[in-house]
Every structure is written in C-alpha cells, then in structure tokens.
Amino acid sequence: MLIFKVLLIIAVISKVTPFILTPIINHERSLVSLQSVPSDTSTSEVAERPSVPSSNPSAGGPPSGIKPAGPPPPSLADRVFDVTFPILYIFSPLRSTNLESFKNLRVLWTRALLNARKEIDDPIAYRMLPRGTRKLVSRFPSKLIFRGPVRKKLSWIKDRTEFIDAAASKWMEGCPTPGQVVIIGAGYDTRAARFSPLNPNLKFFELDLPEVIETKAMLYAKTFRGEKSPSTLISHDLTSSSSIFDALPPSFSKELPTLFIIEAVMFYLPPPSINNLLSSVFSLPSPSQTIIVDNLAKVGVTPGGPPDQIKQKCKDLGTKYGKEMGEHKAIWGGAIHMAEFK
Ligand SMILES: C[S@@+](CC[C@H](N)C(=O)[O-])C[C@H]1O[C@@H](n2cnc3c(N)ncnc32)[C@H](O)[C@@H]1O
C-alpha cells in the first residue's frame, strides 16, 4: 500500500514540479557545471562544495558541462528524480542529519535499484537501506521506476561501479600478502562490506567528513548488528592541509600493498586539496595502486578533444607523479575519467 501511495505522489509531482523547480534546478546545475569547465580552476566558486545536494555527480546525475565535452542535457527524468527522492526520506533520521549524508543515501538507493534490475551486483546496497524504503527497490516496483529515461540517467553509476569493481577485484586477486584498501570520500560505498568477507587478508579503511562517518557508523551498526564491522571508519576533511596518512590509524601501514579508491570526490575539492591527495596516494610504490573515477579538470585534465588526446591527458597526470596508467575509460568527452594508476 505504502509503495502505491509513494508511486502516486511521484506521478503527481512529476506533472507539477518542473514549473515550480526549474529555476532552482538550473541554479544547482550551474554550480556543478562550473566544476567541469576547463578554466582557471582556482576560483572560489569552483573550490566550494556545492551547497545543495545536487544529484549530478552523485546519484546518477551527471555534472552539466560545456559542449562538446559534457554530459547529456538535463531531462524531465532528472527533475522528477531530484524532486521526488527527498519525499521518500522526509521522515528518516538520515535525512535530517546533513546534506552530504542525504546525497550518499541517494547513491545507495540508486545502487539498490540497479542491483534489483540486475544491472550491477550490489546486494549490500539493499541491505543498508532504511527498511521503510527498501520495498521500492525490490523486483516489481523497481521495474516500474526503471524505465528508459531513468535507466539512461543511472547508466553512469553502473559504468563507474563496473569499472571500479573489476579493477579492484583484479588487484585483490593479485594481492596474496596482507594488504589494505582505503576508500576515500567513501560516502555509503558498499565495497568494504562486499569485498572484505572474500578477502580476509585485507584491511579496509573508509574515510569521509565527520558527519558522513557518523551516519555511516549508524548504518553499519544497524545493518551488520552482531557482525564484524566491514571497515575502520575515519573522519577526515580532505580540504585540511594534512595528509590522509596523518588521519589513518596506526593499524594502517605504508609498508603494505594498498589500493586507494577515489570515486566522485574531486568535484567537491579545491585544486590544492586534490594535489595534496594525489601526492599522498601516488607516493606508495607498486603493487600499491589507485583507482580514480572523477572529474579531473581541476588538476589540468581538461575535457575535450579526440579520444586519444583525452586518454593521453589522463596518462600525463599519472606520469607527473611517476605512475603508469593501466585501464582507462572516459565519458562525456573527458568530463569524467575512470582510470587505474600503478
Ligand atoms: C558524490 S559522493 C561519492 C561517495 C562515494 N565515493 C560513492 O561514489 O558512492 C562524494 C563524497 O565525498 C565526500 N567529501 C566531500 N568533500 C569532502 C572533504 N572535504 N573531505 C572528505 N570527504 C569529502 C562527501 O562527504 C561524499 O561522501
């Protein structure tokens, strides 16, 4: 019954909200689009974290960008998703905690939806969702939601999940010694929970802003009650001048092979913080590795140009830090890079 009420609300809202919300949504998009524009990236607008829970780099919403290097233009489905999603969690404690956590909840919900449609393999996303809204992403309702425009909109979450999962699995298989996985700007990433039971030789660390870590700890406590926590959670603001190594606990060792995962985080960081982060993760020698799925415009990997050139620009970033680029994929004319660096 609840599901049908929610679907009815979605249908009604989808008719009326485009008129009401277009100006607000356009403002959100302009904030995010600044981040994919190749420009002098030291402006404060670029450096600021978006002040609204923009769906764009997170829950399946691509960042707007300049043509020809940019994502598809916003559609009605974008608007409907942006508007209706908050209604689902209007009474959730996770909703009231803070905007970053709420944004992460959208990504989690999206992953659960993609899992229900067998687009990705992430059953943990479903388990971690607050119970009241889980049913919406079970088989039948998810079929109603997962129509053409929604499917298209969410395809970049599928792409990035597949890229990182494949690269991470490959690294983990080749890591017989004790090793470590550090997920940076982890949000509600489910990889620690998915991969740690399969890899008892690896320690998992997840790092994010204090308020996000607080809510993730709540989610873990609820989801894995009586079980070992999938990871060690670390509060750290990447815009601080210190290195992530100062934030990691003594159980982390720079001497062990380490996999760093950075997914959709650099949108929110100013260039000096990105450089600071890259200097740290790239400082560990092979077999340590870094997987990045992000917009790299702020560190000189500007979108645009033919595919070879787009790839070369990303490769050059690794070379600058003495790293070799392995697998690489770019979408939206290089507005997003998916790359592994060894
Ligand atoms: C779009 S979410 C991506 C989350 C996760 N990587 C994923 O793909 O599901 C961006 C994440 O970056 C985190 N973040 C943003 N600014 C940060 C900062 N200054 N320090 C640490 N984390 C930050 C946010 O809290 C959020 O969890």
H/E element sequence: HHHHHHHHHHEHEHEHEHEHEE
CATH topology of the largest domain, which one?
Rossmann fold
Please tell me what the overall shape is. globular
> How far apart are the first and last residues' alpha carbons, in Å?
51 Å
Query: Average pLDDT across residues?
Result: 78
CATH class identity of the largest domain:
Alpha Beta
Briefly note the structural class of the backbone: alpha/beta
Can you summarize the main beta sheet? 7 strands, mixed
Helix content: 40-55%
Count of structural domains: 2
Strand segment count? 7
The value of Rg in angstroms is 19 Å
The number of helices is 15
Which superfamily, in CATH terms, is the homologous superfamily of the largest domain?
Vaccinia Virus protein VP39
Low-pLDDT segments = 9-68
The portion of residues forming beta strands comes to: 5-15%
- What compounds are bound to the protein? S-adenosylmethionine
Placed side by side, the strands forming the largest sheet appear as: 3-2-1-4-5-7-6
CATH architecture of the largest domain: 3-Layer(aba) Sandwich
Biased composition (Low complexity): 50-68
GO molecular function: methyltransferase activity
Signal peptide: 1-18
Region (Disordered): 42-72
